[in-house]
């Protein structure tokens, strides 16, 4: 009996050890794969940029809208590419197919494969078989079609992958060791906004990215947030040329809009119904309204500057109430790798936070809800409420008087 008991115990112990070893091996496999994935992280964005520059998504969108043809092979796409010069060389459809396959692996395009067999000339017993691959846009890929109405994330990719902006990351580690000079300034000798003023190409690249990004999220905001219903006069602080306010007043015709930005910015703005343009400096004063909208502005500034902006917002609201509607990324208090509450949302916000560190100056950053509440409390707002979140952008309401 003792021998049998020993054998059973020994067998159980051996099995348990094997299970632990197997689990450890599996964890190592997963960790190694994840680490290797990071080494090639940037390849997807670089490949996506190439596809945008080639006009691949527009070609696929046109095919997808056709009743007769929904997908195209790399060769069929290559035949439609616009070449800057005709130098006698053929477009390399093999290169293009490799680009498309990677994009298919991340669900930007879909891939269909058909096995094609063709007899070799003069040899009826031997066949060449090959896989004919065709591609179509996925719902994700449609966001990279450079449409005229501005609904595209293509300009955001073109900006982020441009050498001017990528070069700032070469100086990220240096800024950690010496924060007297920001990464972008280290890279170019001037701030990003100064470079925009000096270089029309960079300015156009940046403005196209910001406008496209804003247009997409304003449409999403108007579908998810209903806090404009009780607003009669809305002031958009840092509203650029008024595109956001125009969308709001189009949905809520009872609203009178005041688009507030620097004088030289509003001077180039188009005309919109029920939208008045006012030039000025948000660090000095802000036009009065019963509500103020401020989107993707506070993350450009450190806490001291943010408090100055919010104090001027506070003064611009009626003493009997009013609210500031803030649209910003809200960071999580801690990192949860189980992806709770939508998961991808805080991860995207953390990436944006590092982009602000690389591109911007003077303490620009994303903030947690607690940090927004601290800013609001110092200024004198009665409360801060997170109303809704769209992807990684949240809508906050800073109320002047307690309900």
Automatic annotation (TrEMBL):
Xref: Gene3D superfamilies: Vaccinia Virus protein VP39, Winged helix-like DNA-binding domain superfamily/Winged helix DNA-binding domain
Keywords recorded for this protein, A-Z: Methyltransferase, S-adenosyl-L-methionine, Transferase
Domain O-methyltransferase C-terminal: 169-381
O-methyltransferase dimerisation domain residues: 37-146
Region spans: Disordered: 1-23
One Pfam entry name: Dimerisation
SUPFAM superfamilies reported in the protein's UniProt record: S-adenosyl-L-methionine-dependent methyltransferases, Winged helix' DNA-binding domain
Alphabetical list of PANTHER family matching this protein: O-METHYLTRANSFERASE
Protein name: Uncharacterized protein
Annotated source species: Sphagnum troendelagicum
């Amino acid at each position: 009996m003792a021998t049998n008991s020993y054998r059973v115990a020994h067998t159980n112990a051996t099995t348990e050890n094997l299970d632990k070893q197997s689990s450890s091996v599996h964890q190592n496999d997963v960790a190694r794969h994840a680490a290797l994935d990071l080494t090639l992280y940037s390849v997807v964005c670089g490949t996506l940029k190439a596809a945008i520059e080639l006009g691949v998504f527009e070609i696929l969108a046109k095919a997808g809208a056709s009743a007769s043809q929904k997908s195209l092979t790399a060769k069929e796409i290559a035949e439609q590419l616009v070449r800057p010069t005709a130098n006698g060389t053929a477009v390399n459809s093999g290169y293009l197919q490799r680009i498309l396959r990677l994009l298919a692996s991340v669900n930007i395009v879909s891939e269909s494969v058909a096995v094609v067999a063709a007899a070799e000339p003069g040899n009826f017993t031997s066949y060449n078989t090959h896989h004919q691959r065709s591609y179509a846009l996925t719902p994700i890929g449609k966001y990279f079609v450079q449409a005229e109405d501005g609904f595209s994330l293509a300009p955001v990719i073109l900006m982020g992958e441009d050498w001017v902006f990528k070069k700032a990351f070469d100086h990220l580690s240096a800024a950690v060791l010496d924060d007297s000079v920001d990464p972008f300034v280290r890279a170019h000798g001037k701030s990003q906004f100064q470079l925009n003023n000096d270089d029309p190409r960079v300015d156009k690249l940046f403005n196209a990215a910001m406008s496209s990004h804003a247009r997409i999220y304003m449409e999403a905001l108007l579908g998810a947030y209903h806090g404009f219903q009780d607003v009669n006069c809305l002031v958009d602080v840092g509203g650029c040329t008024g595109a956001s306010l125009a969308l709001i007043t189009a949905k809520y015709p009872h609203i009178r809009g005041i688009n507030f930005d620097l004088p030289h910015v509003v001077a180039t703005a188009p005309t919109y119904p029920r939208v008045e343009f006012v030039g000025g400096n948000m660090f000095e004063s802000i036009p009065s309204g019963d509500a103020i909208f401020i989107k993707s502005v506070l993350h450009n500034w450190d806490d001291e500057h943010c408090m100055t902006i919010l104090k001027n917002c506070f003064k611009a609201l009626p003493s009997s109430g009013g609210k500031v509607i803030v649209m910003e990324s809200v960071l999580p208090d801690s990192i949860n790798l189980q992806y709770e509450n939508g998961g991808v949302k805080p991860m995207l916000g953390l990436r944006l936070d590092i982009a602000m560190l690389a591109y911007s100056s003077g303490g620009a950053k994303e903030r947690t809800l607690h940090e927004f509440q601290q800013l609001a409390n110092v200024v004198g707002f009665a409360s801060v409420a997170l109303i809704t979140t769209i992807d990684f952008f949240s809508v906050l309401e800073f109320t002047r008087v307690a309900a």
